[in-house]
Amino acid sequence: MSNSNQLQRSLGLQLVVMMVIGNIIGSGVYKKVAPMAAELGSPGWVLICWVLGGVITMFGALSNAEVAGLLADTGGEYSYYKRIYNRFFAFLYGWSLFTVIQTATIASLAYVFAQSLNSIAPLPALFGSLAEVNLAGVFFPFADFNIKFTAILLIFFLTWFNTKSVKAGAGFSTAILLLVFLGIFLIIFFGISSEQADLKSTFQLETAKDTAVTFSSVFAAMLAAFWAYQGWASIGFLGGEIKDAHRNIPRGIFLGVLAVITIYLLVNTTYLSLLPISELTAVYEAGNQIAAIEAVKAFWGSGGGFLISVLILITTLGCTNATILTSCRTYFAMAREGLFFKKAAHLNKAQVPSNSLLFQGVWSCMLVLSGTFDQLTDMIIFAVFIYYGATTFGVFILRKKMPDAHRPYKVWGYPVVPAIMILFCVALFFNTIYVRPREAGIGMILMLTGIPMYWWFTKKQQSKKTPAQQEAVNA
């Protein structure tokens, strides 16, 4: 019934694995090799950073899987943090998802979708005379407005589509993902086997300008890699809609992340074998080019460029849909507890949190207008690794708090693996402040707006309680 306040458990392990992969594989697999090449100047170091990014991601995923297996519920880390830390920290996480992490991810993916569509069929210019209008010289809302307007239309369409049912949204993402797998494996097979491919060059560690690769440059390059790996934890948001969630979430995370790491290493080796570092750097500096398109053109010509543009279009469509589908469940869980806008707790006739989807869609569209693709992705990674570290630290806390609780999965390599993940998160936090101060600053400001909002939501809650209820809380 439409007035029911319970989500339905309809997703099995296969859909969980597909949703994990679908939330990860998006624009990064096609775009991020270029900024990494520009930062490092060496194909071998680019691959090393993809491997390091994959290893750290797997460490985080294994740690997250233990927590998820123990505490699986709708809302993902929001629900976990209430048990691990406290209600305030859980709210701050949920608010960060809304203001930065998930909404900016949706905005970034929709932006690349629109860029790909524009490369296939040029979009008519819109508000060209207002392109230089800006806020503080940082935000240019009308620059490339034809791209941004298309991204906004996509967000609203997929938001509407996902109000129909969770299974329809998950099935749509799975169908798209199968097409993406086919496309990526065609690139790998024909790219590596082509005459233009030079596999030996991909493992060279010498830099293009014979300059040393620094600690900061490796971390900066890994920011790009982490964007490509970002999204694996989103499956936790659907905890209340997964069959046997305590077992299927850990399994799904592990299998999904392992599959993505394998795919990324193969496809980026293909790109680096086809394009020298100088060309990849030029792609990055051009701003409006995509590395994968230029790589495929090297062996399939302009026709291949068209095909890869269509593939990117399909990929980002699927990843945008998967992200929209999963992310809004946290705001629904918060709203049920009075820690988000009340209307977000409503379920429609399809048992879907439609108002939560709408709030998410509107703010995502605002972020589309706020910045460029790379600004948004660096801001996301800065914010999300704060909470990756917090979840991983939760493994240690829960081992102390709940030593005898049944754990369907225990993190491999404990305590070394989670300890390495925590140290890395701390290092990435400070290094991002150093190398990307603007993105780190904007992300931190948006997250910290959660402090006054928490006070406002809790004050509203208290005003609605009867004197007897308030006395019980105080007691």
Query: What's the order of the H and E elements?
Result: HHHHHHHHHHHHHHHHHH
CATH architecture: Up-down Bundle
Task: Supply the number of helical segments.
Answer: 18
pLDDT averaged over residues: 84
How many structural domains does the protein architecture include?
1
Residues in helix, %: over 70%
Unreliable spans are: none
How many beta-strand segments?
Answer: 0
Q: Given the C-alpha coordinates, what overall shape results?
A: globular
Fourth-level CATH superfamily: Amino acid/polyamine transporter I
CATH topology: Amino acid/polyamine transporter I
The Rg value, from CA coordinates, equals: 22 Å
Name the beta content range: under 5%
Pfam family, one: AA_permease_2
Keywords: Membrane, Transmembrane, Transmembrane helix
Transmembrane segments: 12-30, 42-62, 88-113, 133-158, 170-192, 212-232, 253-274, 306-332, 352-373, 379-399, 411-434, 440-457
Protein name: APC family permease
